[in-house]
Amino acid sequence: xxxxxxxxxxxxxxxxxxxxxxxxxxxxxxxxxxxxxxxxxxxxxxxxxxxxxxxxxxxxxxxxxxxxxxxxxxxxxxxxxxxxxxxxxxxxxxxxxxxxxxxxxxxxxxxxxxxxxxxxxxxxxxxxxxxxxxxxxxxxxxxxxxxxxxxxxxxxxxxxxxxxxxxxxxxxxxxxxxxxxxxxxxxxxxxxxxxxxxxxxxxxxxxxxxxxxxxxxxxxxxxxxxxxxxxxxxxxxxxxxxxxxxxxxxxxxxxxxxxxxxxxxxxxxxxxxxxxxxxxxxxxxxxxxxxxxxxxxxxxxxxxxxxxxxxxx
Length: 313
Prior knowledge:
With 313 residues, the protein is an alpha+beta fold. The protein contains six helices and 16 strands.
């Protein structure tokens, strides 16, 4: 092993769309029949698959004989234990970077774009061919890193769930959830399709969609022309989070005043479930890794003690 690169490298991968289809239909031929039967271009699936695995081979060739390394598939992230001194590489789309970052505790994360012609890659500043020159610098802590503020939901029994983009608190399906929400001295009972808590990194995604949609609906209700909402995303290392309630329903027993606000280190958002079952808390769009949120469960949501470290160009 090269003495300049003593640190182990963990490469997080994802299955391509083609691999997902083959897992579902068992053979490539059946996957092709399914895609073409729907009128889609199967060649696009094949091209994506080939380019992804070409990039994977470049990464493997870079690591073999030089670095201790391990490849893990995205689905193993919730149960994988990262060493404190490891370097982590995410080979995929922006979502894979976010999915990986929330399971790290300060380890440097490198976002590698396997197909720059296909993915814009806001969180993927590097290509597979960059790793040979990049990893020795990271091993010596000579590369600039961007700090990413993370959110965390804590339950009374000690369970916690971290988020790089967003936390969702709400019903498991397309129904409503009844809960009590509290921020500082403000407190009320609500019924809604859930609430979203966004970090700075996530403020350009789901939260922007919520604000834009609400603005367009109000313009239509008021009879005016739709206008672009005055929305400003937060910095990645922001000192606060933003929350918004989706589709709050006013009634004799539920209120709709506390539907948006900010959470900082001194003021957590506290949400207590008033629904027997069907309530969940998940983060970054990964519904399979969640906390149960049934009657009496109290979630305290705030800024996490962890800080994400994304290796920058």
